[in-house]
Amino acid sequence: MNKLKIENHMKSRSLSAITATAYRLLSQNMKLWMRRLWPWVIGFAVASGIVYSACTMIMSEKNPTTTLVLWGIAFVAVIAEIFLYACASGSIMAALKEQKTKPNIMRALRLALLFALIYIAFLIVYYAISISLVLIWNIGVLYIHILIAFGLMLLGMIIMLPVCYSGMRYLAEDDLKLGSVFGKNYLIGLRHFWRLFLTVFVVMLISMLLASLLAAPLGVIVMASMQDALGIYLGDPSGMPATQPLLIFLAAFIATIACSFIWLWQFFCIYYQYGSITTRIKEYEKAIND
After folding, report:
1. If residue 224 lies in a helix (H) or strand (E), which one and from where to where?
2. For the chain, which terminal residue's Cβ has fewer other Cβ atoms within 10 angstroms, N or C?
3. How deeply is 86 buried, as exposed, middle or buried, from its count of CB atoms within 10 A (0-12, 13-18, 19+)?
4. Backbone angles phi, psi at 119, to 5 degrees
5. CA distance 126 to 148
6. Which DSSP category does 20 fall into?
7. Is pTM, for the whole model, over 0.85?
8. Are 149 and 126 in contact (CB under 8 A)?
9. What is the DSSP code (8-state) at residue 240?
10. HEC assignment per residue over 196-223
11. Neighbouring C-beta atoms of residue 33, cutoff 10 Å
């Protein structure tokens, strides 16, 4: 097991110290992360390319059978993304804990399955509300359904924010069961909601700024595809080249690999915030007992 080039013990840190320490953990061990993660990153990039390519083709496809096939391809690719994401997360935790990789990957896969089930539950709730509005009250106005989707997404983000702590603690501490993610540790994350919120907000803000630069070519191609799909819907011929799916696949593949370093930094920021909260709790309990 390769030793990390930065101290890895848990201690209380400010938000600025968390982001800086996470960056050092990433930059000072770049060879280690590339060696451990390259199969998962490349696989995830391929799956992302397939998802983007299939979804953009769906927007301009009129054949129901072809549309169904494209949806199936996109669904399988999303499942592959979830699996590869979990494998990468488990491999990172194995390096941080200096343990074997396979047990940590299995823990990460169980956590990813739990998240997938929660996501499916939110989808079921959304479609149950939307279909009821259409069938019972004849409300099919698009913006209303968009507002419902946005409201459920916001609710899901609020509910899942404490999981940044409880989920990371489940991955980091081998004696915890999967149920702890929504048990006592979830309540601890809930008590530190604003600390987690500020961490996620700052990290996501920085990440989006960086990703907007790294994924700019992909954004341009996707926007052009959306405009082309709108033109086809209105009866105009397609203005995109026949190689459009390949271009989108390559753009998404490259953008995903480039943004993988941003995701790795995000992971480390949540990891150090989990350590900071855990240390604060231990210090508080020690002060009470003394």
Report:
1. helix 216-233
2. C
3. buried
4. -60, -45
5. 7
6. H
7. yes
8. yes
9. S
10. HHHHHHHHHHHHHHHHHHHCHHHHHHHH
11. 21
- Written as one letter, the residue type at 46 is V
C-beta separation of 243 from 32 below 8 A: no
CA diameter of the chain: 77
d(CA 220, CA 232): 18
The CA-atom distances, in angstroms, between 57 and each of 44, 50, 246 are 20, 11, 11
Angle among Cα 160, 165, 169 to the nearest 5 degrees reads 125
DSSP assignment string, 130-142: HHHHHHHH----H
H or E segment and range at residue 28? none
- Reported as a single tens digit per residue, the pLDDT across 138-182 is 776 778 888 998 999 999 999 999 999 999 999 999 999 999 999
* d(C-alpha 201, C-alpha 195), whole Å: 10
Coil, strand or helix: which one is 63? coil
Cβ neighbours for 218, distance < 8 A, ≥ 6 positions apart: 52, 248, 251, 252, 254, 255
Residues in the chain: 290
Amino acid (one-letter) located at 272: Y
